[in-house]
Amino acid sequence: MFKRTLSSALVFGMVALAPPVHAQAVPGCQTREHLVQTLADRYNESLDSIGLQGPELLLEVWSAQDTGSFTVLITKPNGISCVVATGKNWHKFDLQAKQGVAG
Q1: Measured between alpha carbons, how far is 30 from 46 in angstroms, rounded to an integer?
Q2: What's the alpha-carbon Rg for the chain, to the nearest Å?
Q3: C-alpha distances in angstroms, 27 versus 30, 71, 82?
Q4: Pairing mode, if any, of strands 70-75 and 58-63?
């Protein structure tokens, strides 16, 4: 009887500590191709800026001019991208035009 009670308590305890199912259904990292397609189709975002963060990480900012939404991705050499930030009210500034720099 004691073993059955202890086993039940352990099982229910582990279930209670597990993350919610909906949190597991939306992974933060996927193939770059899949994330880019989702950003374009669902959020109408396109590539805005790009840069290297170290020798093996590509940082990308995707944004939508019509809604102001944006997404920041980090892409690894193996083709896996991770969403590191999302938000609204993205504003792109043309710093060269503001500073009078000829391009």
Answers
A1: 18
A2: 22
A3: 7, 15, 9
A4: antiparallel
What pLDDT, on a 0 to 100 scale, did the predictor assign at position 92?
A: 80
Say what the pTM is.
0.65
For residue 12, what is the enclosing H or E element? helix 2-17
How many other C-beta atoms can be found within 10 angstroms of the C-beta atom of residue 69? 19
- 28-54: pLDDT as tens digits: 799 999 999 999 999 999 999 999 998
Look up residue 20 and give its DSSP letter: P
Nearest residue to 85 via CA among 76, 96, 73, 68: 73
Q: Which two tokens stand for residue 26?
A: 């939306």
Task: Specify burial of residue 15 (Cβ count, 10 A radius: 0-12, 13-18, 19+).
Answer: exposed
Give the whole-angstrom CA distance, residue 92 versus residue 36.
Answer: 20
